[in-house]
């Protein structure tokens, strides 16, 4: 069956729906990733599973979704921009229905650059909300219990004052202006542009496997889904060091003994000198587990044509 042209509005709807469904499914793992990447010195969590168990124990089930409202609000335009921009760039760069590898990489670069407009403030707010529980647990451990019994002291973290995304936004705008919401833009670009340059060409290659004789034929649903998962996990792990740097720079509140950074180079140097090269891979497993289904779902939504169905329903 020939590959049909998808309108820009349908692309935006597909990207938005994919983002909403994907974030809802994988947000707890993303929360664990943020807390593990920010963990320096005093260790509160010993891996992803331990982090999730302690989060539920001390903050309740919905503690795993702290910051999800920000993501669910902004992930629709973020994923819509990313997926739609890549498709538009691919169409513009194609010649006679064919796109060379350099064109695929350039299209991914354009998509990653476009999405940063929404991604940076979304990540800024999400990180502050996700990391609040870790900071509270660390303070509780350092003041009431030895580090070896960290799990026993987490119960008191539910009393911590929880700032809302609105309060954080207003505070940043009041003290730093719009620039405050875009703190870490350089690091976000440094992560998202290479990610897209790896993900989109790799997905296209995997999605085309077995269809060399007729590249315009649509791939089966499971092939598109698995291609999205594999390409997403490979790209996610590849840029994890850049994600660690971005997370550290965008975290406003630091725990006891934790560094503040003056930029990408300063952050890289301090992490390397104080924690070693392995620190740049903190949260790599979590990140792969987040991104793989997120982009698998995204490609599945595109395959099913949700956007076209919605437009047809109201058109």
Helix content: over 70%
Number of helical regions: 12
Number of strands: 0
Shape: globular
CATH superfamily: Mitochondrial carrier domain
How many structural domains does the protein architecture include? 1
Q: What's the story with the biggest beta sheet?
A: none
Which blocks of ≥5 consecutive residues have pLDDT under 50?
147-161
Q: Give the H and E element order.
A: HHHHHHHHHHHH
Indicate the mean pLDDT.
84
Using only CA atoms, what is the Rg?
Answer: 20 Å
Which percent band covers the strand fraction? under 5%
What is the CATH third-level topology name?
Mitochondrial carrier fold
The computed structural class is mainly alpha
Ends: how far apart? 25 Å
State the CATH class.
Mainly Alpha
CATH architecture: Alpha/alpha barrel
Helix and strand layout, with pairings?
Layout: H1 8-38, H2 48-59, H3 68-93, H4 101-144, H5 165-176, H6 178-181, H7 185-207, H8 221-238, H9 240-250, H10 264-275, H11 284-304, H12 306-314
Helix pairs in contact: 1-2, 1-3, 1-4, 1-11, 1-12, 3-4, 4-7, 7-8, 7-9, 8-11
Structural descriptors:
mainly alpha; Mitochondrial carrier fold; globular; 315 residues
What can you see in these coordinates?
With 315 residues, this protein is an all-alpha fold. It has a single domain, classed as Alpha/alpha barrel (Mitochondrial carrier fold), CATH 1.50.40.10. It has twelve helices and no strands. It has helices at 8-38, 48-59, 68-93, 101-144, 165-176, 178-181, 185-207, 221-238, 240-250, 264-275, 284-304, 306-314.
At a glance:
The protein is mainly α. It has helices spanning 8-38, 48-59, 68-93, 101-144, 165-176, 178-181, 185-207, 221-238, 240-250, 264-275, 284-304, 306-314.
């Amino acid at each position: 069956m020939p590959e049909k042209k998808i309108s820009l509005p349908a692309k935006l709807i597909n990207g938005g729906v994919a983002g909403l469904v994907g974030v809802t499914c994988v947000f707890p793992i993303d929360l664990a990733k943020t807390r593990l990447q920010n963990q320096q010195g005093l260790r509160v969590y010993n891996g992803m599973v331990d982090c999730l168990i302690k989060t539920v124990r001390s903050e309740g089930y919905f503690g795993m979704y702290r910051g999800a409202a920000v993501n669910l609000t902004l992930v629709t335009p973020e994923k819509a921009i990313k997926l739609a921009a890549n498709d538009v760039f691919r169409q513009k760069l194609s010649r006679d229905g064919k796109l060379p590898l350099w064109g695929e990489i350039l299209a991914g670069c354009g998509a990653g650059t476009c999405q940063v407009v929404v991604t940076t403030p979304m990540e800024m707010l999400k990180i502050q909300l996700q990391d609040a529980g870790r900071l509270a647990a660390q303070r509780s451990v350092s003041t009431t219990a030895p580090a070896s019994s960290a799990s026993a002291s987490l119960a008191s973290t539910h009393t911590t004052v929880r700032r809302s995304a609105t309060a954080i936004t207003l505070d940043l705008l009041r003290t730093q202006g719009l620039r405050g919401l875009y703190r870490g833009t350089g690091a976000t670009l440094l992560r998202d542009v290479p990610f897209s340059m790896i993900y989109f060409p790799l997905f296209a290659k995997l999605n085309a496997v077995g269809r060399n004789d007729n590249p315009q034929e649509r791939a089966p649903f499971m092939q598109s889904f698995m291609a999205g998962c594999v390409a997403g996990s490979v790209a996610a792990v590849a840029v994890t060091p850049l994600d660690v740097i971005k997370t550290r720079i965008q975290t406003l509140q630091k725990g006891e003994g934790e560094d503040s950074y003056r930029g990408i180079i300063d952050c890289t140097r301090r992490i390397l000198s104080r924690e070693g090269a392995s620190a740049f891979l903190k949260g790599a497993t979590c990140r792969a587990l987040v991104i793989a289904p997120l982009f698998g779902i995204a490609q599945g939504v595109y395959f099913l044509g949700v956007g076209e169905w919605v437009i047809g329903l109201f058109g």
